[in-house]
Each structure stands twice: as structure tokens, then as C-alpha cells.
Amino acid sequence: MKFSDYKYERPDIQQIKEKFRQLVQTFESAERLEDQEQAITEINHLRSTTRLRYFAHSNSGNG
Question: Contact, 17 vs 8, CB < 8 A?
């Protein structure tokens, strides 16, 4: 499958903000380093997928 074959779906910004807020809260309230590391991993994944969606949209001629 080529990159151009992927269907663009606009991200739900409110959903992303809420998920980010929850992950930050999880990080702040974590009692173990491992839990903080997991929260950071999920935050980074959320940021990466959001950036990839933006990049795909902005380079598809739609943005």
C-alpha cells in the first residue's frame, strides 16, 4: 500500500486534549517510576500519531 492510498481522518482535537490531560494526571499521581515511564511512553505515542496525521494531511494537497 502506498502512502497516498491511506485515507485521511481528521483527528478529534477535544479527544486528544482529554487523553493528554488524563495521561499527565496519571504521570503526576504515579507512585512508581515504572508508571511514570508508561505514562510518558503513551504521551509520546499520542504526540507522534497526532503529528503524523497532520503531516499526512498537510502534504496531501488538503492543507
Answer: no
